[in-house]
Automatic annotation (TrEMBL):
<feature type="transmembrane region" description="Helical">
    <location>
        <begin position="220"/>
        <end position="240"/>
    </location>
</feature>
<dbReference type="InterPro" id="IPR000515">
    <property type="entry name" value="MetI-like"/>
</dbReference>
<feature type="transmembrane region" description="Helical">
    <location>
        <begin position="83"/>
        <end position="108"/>
    </location>
</feature>
<dbReference type="GO" id="GO:0043190">
    <property type="term" value="C:ATP-binding cassette (ABC) transporter complex"/>
</dbReference>
<keyword id="KW-0812">Transmembrane</keyword>
<feature type="transmembrane region" description="Helical">
    <location>
        <begin position="361"/>
        <end position="383"/>
    </location>
</feature>
<dbReference type="Pfam" id="PF00528">
    <property type="entry name" value="BPD_transp_1"/>
</dbReference>
<dbReference type="InterPro" id="IPR043429">
    <property type="entry name" value="ArtM/GltK/GlnP/TcyL/YhdX-like"/>
</dbReference>
<keyword id="KW-0472">Membrane</keyword>
<feature type="domain" description="ABC transmembrane type-1">
    <location>
        <begin position="87"/>
        <end position="380"/>
    </location>
</feature>
<feature type="transmembrane region" description="Helical">
    <location>
        <begin position="129"/>
        <end position="150"/>
    </location>
</feature>
<dbReference type="GO" id="GO:0022857">
    <property type="term" value="F:transmembrane transporter activity"/>
</dbReference>
<keyword id="KW-0029">Amino-acid transport</keyword>
<feature type="transmembrane region" description="Helical">
    <location>
        <begin position="260"/>
        <end position="279"/>
    </location>
</feature>
<dbReference type="GO" id="GO:0006865">
    <property type="term" value="P:amino acid transport"/>
</dbReference>
<feature type="transmembrane region" description="Helical">
    <location>
        <begin position="21"/>
        <end position="39"/>
    </location>
</feature>
<feature type="transmembrane region" description="Helical">
    <location>
        <begin position="334"/>
        <end position="355"/>
    </location>
</feature>
Length: 392
C-alpha cells in the first residue's frame, strides 16, 4: 500500500501557529476596545462638564510673560508660541547638561583609575556623594543655598567690570552683530567641513602608509583660525553691549537666570556621577593584554588611553551612556520646582491652569519628550553601530 508523502492536516485549532495568531488577534481587539471605551468615557465626561476639546486654543492670546525666551515673545503671543518657548528652554538646558555631564563624567571616571591615590579617592568621593543624594534636593541646594545667597545687584561680584554675579544671575556682555558678520558663520561651516574631510583623509593615509597626521592640532587650528581670520578681515563686525548698573538693576548685556544655572549645575553634576561609573567599568572591560601590548611597543600612557583603551571601551560605554542622556532630558522637567520656564513649567503648568485644556496639553508635552528621547536614542545608536567590531 502506498503511503502519502505528507501527513494529513489535523483540526485547525490544533495548529500552534494558528492558535498564537488567534490569541494575538483577541488581545489586539481587547486593547482596541479598552482604548475606545476610555476615549468615549473621557469625551462624555468632558462634554457633561462643559469642557471643550481640541487644539484651537493654541491660537489664543497667552497673556502672561516668560522670564527667559530664546525667541521673540510677549504677553500678546499665542499659546503655540508659548509651547515653542518652553520647548527651546528645555532643549537648551538639556543640551548644556548633556555636554557638561559627559565631560565631567569621563574626567571623573578616568580619575577613579588613576595611580595617584589622592586623585582616585577624590573621584570616588565625588561619585559616592552626588549619586546618592536625590536630584531634586541637589537642585534646591544649588538654587536656595548657593545662588540665592549671592549679594544684591549693587554689591555684585565682578570680573574685569564686564561680568557680574549676583542674586539675579550672571550678567554678561551681549554681542550685537553688525553688517558683514554673516561671513563668520559661513567660515565656521567651511572649517567644520574641511576638518571632517581631513579626518577621513588622515585615516585613509594612515591605513595605507602607517604615517599619522596631527589631526587634532590641524583641526583645532582650522576651526579657530579660519573664522577668526574672516572676523578680522571683515573689520570685526561685532559690538558688545556692556552691562551697567542703573538704579537697582543692570541695563544692557544679557542675564543668565539663577534658575537656569542651578538646574544646569544639578543635572550635570548628578548625571556625571553615573557616567563616571559607566566610564570606569568600560575601561576596566578592556583586556589587560591590550594595554600590555601597547606598553611593549613603548607607546606613551596618554596615547594608550586615547588610541587603545578608550576606542574599545566605547563599545561598552555608549549603550549605558545613552540611557543617562535620556534620563537627563527627562529629569530636566524638575525645573518646575525652582520656576525655570521649561516646557513643563510654562506649558503644562501656567498654560494648563489658564486654559484648562489638560488632555491636549499633557498629551503634547508627553509627545515632545518622547520625540526628543527617540531622536537622541537614534543618534546614539547610530554612533554605537559605528563603534562596533566589524567582522569580516
Amino acid at each position: 500500500m502506498l503511503r502519502s508523502s505528507s501527513r494529513e492536516r489535523g483540526p485547525l485549532w490544533r495548529d500552534p501557529a494558528f492558535r498564537a495568531l488567534l490569541v494575538q488577534g483577541i488581545l489586539l481587539l481587547a486593547l482596541g476596545a479598552f482604548i475606545a471605551m476610555v476615549v468615549s468615557n473621557t469625551m462624555a465626561n468632558l462634554e457633561a462638564r462643559g469642557i471643550t476639546t481640541g487644539f484651537g486654543f493654541l491660537q489664543d492670546r497667552a497673556g502672561f510673560s516668560i522670564p527667559q525666551t530664546l525667541i521673540e515673545y510677549s504677553g500678546d503671543s499665542t499659546y503655540a508660541r508659548t509651547f515653542v518657548v518652553g520647548l527651546l528652554n528645555t532643549l537648551l538646558v538639556s543640551a548644556m547638561g548633556i555636554v557638561a555631564a559627559t565631560l565631567i563624567g569621563f574626567a571623573v571616571g578616568i580619575a577613579r583609575l588613576s595611580p595617584n591615590w589622592l586623585l582616585a579617592r577624590l573621584a570616588t568621593a565625588y561619585v559616592e556623594i552626588f549619586r546618592n543624594i536625590p536630584l531634586l534636593v541637589q537642585i534646591l541646594f544649588w538654587y536656595f543655598a548657593v545662588l540665592q545667597a549671592l549679594p544684591s545687584p549693587r554689591d555684585s561680584h565682578s570680573l574685569l567690570e564686564v561680568v557680574f554675579l549676583n542674586v539675579r544671575g550672571v550678567v554678561l556682555p551681549d554681542p550685537q552683530p553688525l553688517a558683514g558678520f554673516a561671513a563668520t558663520p559661513w567660515a565656521l561651516l567651511v572649517a567644520v567641513i574641511a576638518t571632517w574631510w581631513m579626518v577621513r583623509f588622515a585615516r585613509r593615509r594612515q591605513a595605507k602608509t602607517g604615517r599619522p597626521l596631527p589631526v587634532f592640532k590641524l583641526g583645532t587650528l582650522l576651526l579657530i583660525g579660519l573664522p577668526l581670520a574672516t572676523f578680522l578681515v571683515t573689520g570685526m563686525p561685532l559690538e558688545w553691549s556692556i552691562p551697567e548698573l542703573k538704579g537697582f538693576n543692570f541695563q544692557g548685556g544679557v542675564t543668565v537666570l539663577p534658575e537656569l544655572m542651578a538646574l544646569w549645575l544639578a543635572l550635570s553634576i548628578y548625571t556625571a556621577s553615573f557616567i563616571a561609573e559607566i566610564v570606569r567599568s568600560g575601561i576596566q572591560s578592556v583586556p589587560q593584554g591590550q594595554v600590555e601590548a601597547a606598553k611593549a611597543l613603548s607607546l606613551p600612557g596618554g596615547i594608550i588611553l586615547r588610541k587603545v583603551v578608550i576606542p574599545q571601551a566605547m563599545r561598552v560605554i555608549v549603550p549605558q551612556l545613552t540611557s543617562q542622556h535620556l534620563n537627563l532630558i527627562k529629569n530636566s522637567s524638575l525645573a518646575t520646582a525652582i520656576g525655570y520656564p521649561d516646557l513643563v513649567a510654562v506649558f503644562s503648568g501656567t498654560a494648563l491652569n489658564v486654559t484648562g485644556q489638560a488632555i491636549e496639553i499633557v498629551v503634547m508635552t508627553m509627545a515632545v519628550y518622547l520625540l526628543i528621547n527617540l531622536v537622541v536614542s537614534a543618534l546614539m545608536n547610530l554612533y554605537n553601530a559605528r563603534t562596533l567590531l566589524k567582522e569580516r
